[in-house]
Design a protein that fits this description.
single chain, alpha/beta, Rossmann fold, 3-stranded antiparallel β-sheet, about 50% helix, binds adenosine monophosphate, AMP kinase activity
């Protein structure tokens, strides 16, 4: 399949806490294409209490990977939605080289945005992050201590994700280093990778990404 010229099919890769989610949201507005987070797809199924959600609940809460076949199917269904026809940004997939190889024929990324961060900064950012359980508004533990746990955007409850508790954080970071980092090498061999320093501020990282697109 040849892609229409100028179409962006971006993959965001980086450890948890690297700002991938935020960069995905900014890029989505900038490029007018959807950002699809496989973690969010999983959490939505769980919150809705669907059979699929029940089947992956244990892994997601424990910070473990859900089976490749499940995540691939979920993503392919989502990519078939109308809003993704002119391009997309994916956050959270591929997480393993096996997933990347399996997706070779249908994902066809045009660039892989790799946001790099040390474990130390990733842990401190993840421990501090909070989000609205309804609208995904992002905030921090400090802001909640100051302003309370009601979302200023939609009045939903601001919570800490279960997999952002210390034990699950370390498990997810270890998993990132051992199984996801090699995905960057996989795409590097195909000359698709652009690397960014995730310890810089959000606007700065965004400007650097926008510059290479
Ligand atoms: P995230 O929000 O990207 O940190 O993802 C949250 C959780 O969703 C992960 O810890 C996994 O349980 C699951 N998940 C998301 N993407 C994938 C994937 N590509 N492969 C397997 N599991 C995934």
């Amino acid at each position: 399949m040849s892609l229409p010229e100028g179409q962006h099919r971006l993959i965001l890769i980086g450890p948890q806490g690297s700002g991938k989610g935020t960069q995905g949201e900014l890029l989505s507005v900038y490029l007018q294409i959807p950002t699809i987070s496989t973690g969010h797809l999983c959490r939505t199924e769980i919150e809705r209490g669907t059979a699929l959600g029940k089947s992956i609940e244990r892994e997601v809460r424990a910070g473990e990977l859900v089976p490749d076949s499940v995540i691939t199917e979920m993503l392919r269904v989502r990519l078939a939605d109308y809003d993704a026809k002119d391009g997309f940004i994916i956050d959270g997939f591929p997480r393993t080289v096996a997933q990347a190889r399996d997706a070779e024929s249908w994902l066809q990324p045009t660039k892989v945005i790799a946001i790099e961060l040390t474990d130390k900064i990733a842990v401190s950012r993840m421990s501090a992050r909070r989000a609205c359980s309804q609208c995904r508004y992002k905030t921090t533990a400090d802001a909640v201590a100051k302003h309370g746990s009601i979302c200023p955007r939609c009045n939903g409850a601001i919570i800490q994700r279960e997999d952002d508790f210390p034990e699950a954080i370390q498990k997810r970071l270890d998993m990132y280093r051992s199984v996801t980092q090699p995905v960057v090498d996989h795409y590097h061999e195909r000359d698709l990778v652009e690397r960014f320093n995730g310890s810089l501020s959000i606007p700065l990282v965004f400007m650097e990404i926008a510059h290479v697109l």
